Amino acid sequence: MSIDTRPLTELANHDDFLQRHNGPSRQDVARMLEALDAPSIGALVDKTIPDDIRLRGELNLDGPRGESESLDYLRGLARQNKVFKSYIGQGYHPTHLPAVIQRNVLENPGWYTAYTPYQPEIAQGRLEGLLNFQQMVMDLTGMPIANASLLDEATAAAEAMALCRRANKKHKSERFFVADDVLPQTLDVLRTRAAYLGFELIVGPLEALAEADVFGALLQYPGVSGEIHPLETAIATAKGNGVMTCVAADLLGLVLLKEPGAMGADIVFGNSQRFGVPMGYGGPHAAYFATSDALKRSLPGRVIGVSKDSRGRPALRMAMQTREQHIRREKATSNICTAQALLANIAGFYAVYHGAEGLRTIAARVHRLTTLLADGLTRQGIALKHDTWFDTLTLVGVDTHRIQGRALTREINLRYPADGEVGVSLSETTTAADLGELFDVLIGEEHGLSVSELDREALAGDSSGIPTAYRRASEFLTHPNFQRFRSETEMLRYLKRLENRDLSLTHAMIPLGSCTMKLNATSEMIPITWPEFASIHPFAPNDQVTGYRQMITELSDFLTEITGYDSISMQPNSGAQGEYAGLVAIRRYQAAVGQDERDICLIPSSAHGTNPASAAMAQMKVVVVECDREGNIDIADLQAKASQHRDTLSAIMLTYPSTHGVFEANIRQACQIVHDNGGQVYIDGANMNAQVGLCRPGDYGGDVSHLNLHKTFCIPHGGGGPGMGPIGVKAHLAPHLPNHVMTPQDGIEPDSGAVSAAAYGSASILPISWAYIKMMGARGLREATELAILNANYVAKRLEGHFDVLYRGANGTVAHECILDMRPLKAASGISEEDIAKRLMDYGFHAPTMSFPVAGTLMVEPTESESLYELDRFCEAMIAIRREIGRVESGEWDKTANPLVMAPHTMSDLMDAEWSRPYSRELGAFPSEAVRDAKVWPAVNRVDNVFGDRNLICSCPPIDAYRDA
Ligand SMILES: *Cc1c(COP(=O)(O)O)cnc(C)c1O
């Protein structure tokens, strides 16, 4: 063979990454086009996307750049960040992520590429991890019920406030008390939420609570300046006055401090970051949220509950809240959808790894070091603000400026709450040597203090910042899961065992419509554990985060170009939070132009449940716009409702392409109608994967959109979070984007309150989206969108004649997903969409989205990352299942004993001594050639949802429960 004679400049695989991100090869594309009878992808796209919204020409983006080149560039940006030792505290602390968890969970696609456990039979591993998290939270807080994470401590506080108002039937006021030593970022978010819920915040010292005429109260435990309040009397008095109490508690502190549950708190919440999750310049981390038993039915977020499977064995699944928003719409308890599952799992595993003893040692060390710091400082005549502490001290009457100078020289960050005050928070990572260095900084080098000397004296004098009456007396983490896996070998095997129970993208395509389960490339994931991104406190000074800021600016520029908007806010840390932030921006803008009265939000009946839930949180009144028989917005109804409400119309929330999987032809007109009637247009960008490079919401009428970076832009779903939901806005809304008390933003109104705890949301996962866009470039992104559309149309075509595709666009094509209607099959055979979903597990697949947006359907979104091989494998499984349904329909198989209603099949089924079913074991468990090769075994049989909802249990079941069954 002759050697390639191209010149050196051409001997490079410029397209290498895009060909790896995109599943179909050139030959695949040719075959799919042939099947679709389409001359080219261009022709298919022309048929699919309305001509009047098409982007002419290519996006103006750099790239594509190779994987190593992009990582080198990011490495350069990372190096511009300065990783100082952080004693800032204020809700975020350095922590040691155990290496066995870092490598086998955080850096492991078996964990991070899974989706929210909608199909529990193939998600028992992460459900157990989340149940551990809930058990840990319940134990440490002393509360009987906990959820499986919220987005951050500040938004959890807002959820707590809203929950108090809903649940408190005794006190009718619209006022909420907040202790004045609350974390400042929490107060910022509370202010935003309170404004649109119509609440007045009363901020004052804890002592003022007894006299406050409020429906609820939030107490920080310990306070931001380190003081530990004896909450017992305050809570009891409040209770006597009909006031509900919420305690924001430090999880590590609770190891030593009396648990709020034992003091009568109604709600306890906080951040679990310091349980092994890097600070990451703000996130992602899991907030925890626990309540009294009385509140269990109105808990926001997802709750993992114990139910049983069809063999009567314990089986886990998400409890009733799962589909809450889709059912209750604007009456939903909250808009939380994506939460922080991966991070909750990590925090739970941190507790599994350390157990109660390990946590006691860590907490005791942190506390001892803080005590020694206090002793040394007071000995040198430095006054402390409080005489109680767990891990945080506030020095008073000191020369802040000099201390700051010395600290910066030594690459140390402290908290500077006021002139003359310095705050210091110690952490798991603080050592005795660090303490010596802190003395040098806080006192000056001639202090002559010895840490070991101080330690001896402290022990002799029984010195502590936690008075005896405030100490924890109860046990915690007594469940065997927190005792058995203490050696690394045991821990490794436990993590692997759980991972092996779950189906993730490492096994098969996950065709969940509206969820965009595309490739999360390894290169994209590499930077998130670099210390220069991971170990940065969200409130580190600006000059230490220039690399972060540059990366965020570049990503914002990419996203403005991709969406056609003028400005981006990275603050919202989920899609639903983006919706809320966008609607709030609209309301702020309308208030600023004297249109306060505009509060009607039009929402099509097909909308995702978070849309009406977010509108309700922004104090808007939802008016539903109907869809026509083709699934499109009924323009006549829209016109009628928009003009009926023209004096009070605030906005419309449209999803595009619609949740019905179609590019509606009249989107421009729909936007125009709303504008003509004085409203703003919110485009839900969850389906941006069908638009990137082909059309832009900012061009066809959108004023604001959120983007789900965890859908379109490759942040992995983590089994239910993390996510990022930045919003793009037109220039007139830009001043009304969220600002942040700790990180003021240029060009944004100073009184535009925050929506998240950190100014850039979950900043540490932004490099993933940055890398994706950089490595794809404009052409690669466009090709990805085209292939997403091609793949969806191919699936629709291959399944034609077997299943009905419910909605199609004007020219007979679908967008990037398609809805398969199972209702006719159910009518004819009794086999439901759920039976099909469970039977798919036997074939090795995760089901498509079930019963959203239309009950009785399955919505398939293949994404561009799946190859023709995999698409065919999925379609063949679906067709085989259709044939099986035919056998039920014809009466050949019994309606109640067939492989569909008895799916999924487990190893236990095969091991039954008696096999009395009217089909073979082989047909049950090995229905296709592919699964004979590689089988993902469902860990349990079909889970009984109703039983679990009637008997809500969200703690780890005793080991005997498994044995008895
Ligand atoms: C996923 C999704 C959302 C919600 O996003 P989260 O990040 O889960 O909060 C909103 N709308 C649509 C159409 C979605 O698919």
Please describe what this structure looks like.
The protein is α/β, with parallel strands linked by helices. Helix content is 38%, strand content 11%. It is built from 33 helices and 26 strands. The strands form six sheets. It has a seven-stranded mixed sheet with strand order 2-8-7-6-5-3-4, sandwiched between helices. A seven-stranded mixed sheet has the order 15-21-20-19-18-16-17, sandwiched between helices. Strands 22-23-25-24 form a four-stranded antiparallel sheet. Strand 9 and strand 10 form a beta hairpin. Helix 3 crosses helix 25 and helix 25 packs across helix 28. The longest helix is centred in the middle third of the chain and has 39 residues. The protein is globular. The site of pyridoxal-5'-phosphate (PLP) has 15 residues, from helix 20.
Task: Spell out the key features of this protein.
globular, 965 residues, pyridoxal phosphate, PyrdxlP-dep_Trfase_small
